[in-house]
Protein: Anthrone oxygenase family protein
Organism: Leifsonia sp. NPDC080035
Amino acid sequence: MQTATTIVIAIAALTTAAAGGVYLGFSAMVMPALARSRDASAASAATMNRINVRAPRSSFMLAFLGSALACLASGVLVLGRLPALDAVLALAGALLGVAGFLITAGVNVPLNNRLAAAGDDAAAFAAFEGPWRRANAARGAASLLGAASLVAAIAV
């Protein structure tokens, strides 16, 4: 594999792992903490709405957007090397990394927007929580598996 391609794949692996780590953190800590305050679901909605306002303005966007761009670039760079094992692993990792981005854009963000439109409403949070958690788990798994596959592509 060429050095430039390896560097792009490494950047894709790092940014995708960082994004996946954020999703894992939400699954492991943030959402369970919000769920425990069922008696204060309006407070949970308010907290989630504040997080969703902050997220697009945070350094997380570097990993989130960087992952999608680096994964796309990685996929394109290895297409000519298929069916070599490193290229297959890199393409699989790139597709999984992009899937994490698409799940976020197609499921999590619309759910966030619906919750924001409902305000700090307990019923809105109750309807939001289950679908958001499932999508978060899917994007986290896709991102972390993608990062692992991208690292494996470099190691082969």
Remarks:
- Helices lie at 3-36, 41-54, 60-78, 85-118, 122-155.
- The chain has a mean pLDDT of 94.
- The chain is about 85% helix and 0% strand.
